[in-house]
Amino acid sequence: MDDLNKNQLILLALLVSFVTSIATGVVTVSLMEQAPQSVTQTINRVVTQTIEKVTKEPAAVIKYISEEDLIGSAVESNAKGIVKIKLGLGGDVVGAGIVVTSDGIIISDVNPDDFAPEAKYYAVFPDGKEIPTAFAKIDKRGFSIFSAELGDNKDAYSPANLTFGDSDKLKIGQTVLVISPSGDLQKGIISGLVRDIVTEGIATSTENTGNAPSSQEIKTIKLIKVNIPLSKDNSGSPLVNLNGGVVGITIYKEGVKVAIPSNLIKESMASLADSKK
Fold first, then answer.
1. Could you give phi then psi for residue 156, rounded to 5 degrees?
2. What is the DSSP letter of 208?
C-alpha cells in the first residue's frame, strides 16, 4: 500500500465501492427470493406508495407578474374616475381631473382665473357623458376643486376603486404612470420615473420614557418631479404607482414636469369634509 500513489488509491477505493454495491444487490435479491411472500408484498407496497407520493407532490408554482400586467391593473382601477374638463357643453377641453369622492368632488389643474367669470364647466366621463360641474375653490396646495352634479348618476360615476397611495414613500427612480382621459385610454397612458422629490422638514417632539422630550424631523414630500411629458391636455391627470394607488395630480407648468403629492390632496379632502359638518 505504501507504494501506491494518490490516483491509484482513489481508483482502488472506487473499485471497492463498486464491488460492495454489486455484492449488496446480490445479497438483497437473494434474501428477497428466500423471504415469505407476505414480506415481499409488504415491501413492494411500501416502495410503490413512496414512489406515488413523490411523483404526485405538486411542483412549486412561481407566478411572474410583469410590469405590463401591473400597468393594466393600475389603469383598470382608476380609469372610471378620470375626466376631461370642458368649457361649456360640447365646448373645448381645458384640462383633466380626478373624481375623488362619491358626491362628485373633482380635483383638477384647471384654473378658472384663466377664463371668464361666467364660464360654465362640464366634466366628461369615460363613456362620453357630460355632466355640469361647478367650480368650488383653488386649494392653497396648488390645485382646483370642482363639484360635479352627479344626481342620479352617483352610483355610475362614483370612484369606487380609487385608492390614494402614500406619496411620502415615493423614491427617486420609481416607475409611475400618468393616466390621462384620452378617447383611446391606452393612448393616454404614459409611464416614466420619479426624477426628484421636494421635501419639507417638520419638527416634532417625542416623549422618551425617563428622559426629556427630544426633537425629530419628519420629511414630507411637497412636490414630485417626473420625466413624463406633461401638457395642458393631460394636466390634472392622476399620477399612479404600479400598485394602482394615486400618488399625485399632475400640474402643467411651462418647462416643468411636476405633480402635487397625494398626501396633500388627502389633507385637503379631510379639511373639506370637516367644513361640511
1. -75, -30
2. -
Dist. CA 4–CA 25, nearest whole Å: 30
Helix, strand, coil share (%) of the chain residues, nearest 5? 35, 35, 35
d(CA 50, CA 34): 24
CA distance 106 to 147: 6
Residue 20, burial from CB neighbour count under 10 angstroms (0-12, 13-18, 19+): exposed
Residue 175: strand, helix, or coil? strand
Residue ranges of domains in the chain, CATH in brackets: 77-207+215-275 (2.40.10.120)
Q: Alpha-carbon distance 273 to 201, whole Å?
A: 26
Q: Which of 96, 261, 111 is nearest to 194 (CA)?
A: 261
pLDDT, tens digit only, all 277 positions of the chain: 555 566 666 666 766 676 676 666 555 556 556 656 665 566 666 556 665 665 555 555 555 667 778 888 888 888 888 999 999 888 888 889 999 988 889 999 998 888 888 889 999 988 888 999 999 999 998 899 999 998 887 777 776 668 899 999 999 999 998 988 865 444 567 888 888 888 765 444 334 444 544 445 556 788 899 988 888 778 899 999 999 999 999 998 777 789 999 999 999 989 888 777 6
Report d(CA 109, CA 241) in Å as an integer. Answer: 20
C-alpha cell read off for 9: 488509491
The Cα–Cα gap between 173 and 23 comes to 66
248 neighbors 268 (Cβ within 8 angstroms): no
Tell me the three cell numbers of residue 162.
Answer: 380609487
